[in-house]
Amino acid sequence: MGCARSLYQVAADGLLPRFFHHVNRHGVPDHAMGVNIACSAVVLLFGSPLRIYIFSNIGYLLSCALAMGGYFLHRQYRPELERPVRLPGFVRWVALAIFVFFAFAWVYGGYHSPQLVVGPDEGSFLFWLGIVIVLAYLPLYLLRKAQDRRGAPATAEPAVAGEPAGD
């Protein structure tokens, strides 16, 4: 359910297709939940939890690295912007160091982890699968931008205490 709510919110923010923003009469993101169930069923086909952790951590480490890199770039090149919380200036260098470490762990560790964790005869397939999964976001994002250019109608908002929210 948490993943479906995340897909719903990202669609509400305009980053995923409007399909994920649909809710049923109870205010539940039903389309997002259906996709979540289908993807979970496919993931189960990979067998061992270790194999699943390897390709799923590719996206996780990438997002953590990009967050640290983004923080560094914003503090380095746009220090005058107003922020609700402002850390001391030296923290941007700590963020840069974390970014470099995570990027190294992502590339080197991600590529070699199948051999180290699953078995020595395991190739780099899981690393490349993780890359493909991360890249699968791009067509979804481009589809949403095309929907926005066409002016597709917004989907129903969640129900408010007993009121139906659409179909």
Molecular structure report:
By secondary structure, the chain is an all-alpha fold. It has 2 domains: 1-45 and 140-167, no CATH class; 48-135. 65% of the residues lie in helices and 0% in strands. It has helices at 2-12, 30-44, 49-77, 91-118, 125-135, 137-150. Residues 163-167 have low confidence and may be disordered.
Please render the helix and strand layout as text.
Blueprint: H1 2-12, H2 30-44, H3 49-77, H4 91-118, H5 125-135, H6 137-150
Helix pairs in contact: 1-2, 3-4, 3-5, 4-5
Brief characterization of the structure:
The protein is an all-alpha fold and about 170 residues long. Helices cover about 65% and strands about 0% of the residues.
Features:
167 residues, mainly alpha, 6 helices
N-to-C CA distance: 20 Å
Radius of gyration: 20 Å
Q: Uncertain runs with pLDDT below 50, 5 residues or more?
A: 163-167
Q: How would you spell out the order of helices and strands? A: HHHHHH
Q: Tell me, rounded to a whole number, the average pLDDT.
A: 86
> Structural class of the secondary structure composition?
mainly alpha
Number of domain units = 2
Please report the total strand number as a whole number. 0
Q: Number of helical runs?
A: 6
Q: What share of the residues lie within helices?
A: 55-70%
Question: How would a crystallographer describe the biggest sheet?
Answer: none
Strand percent estimate: under 5%
Task: Indicate the overall shape.
Answer: flat
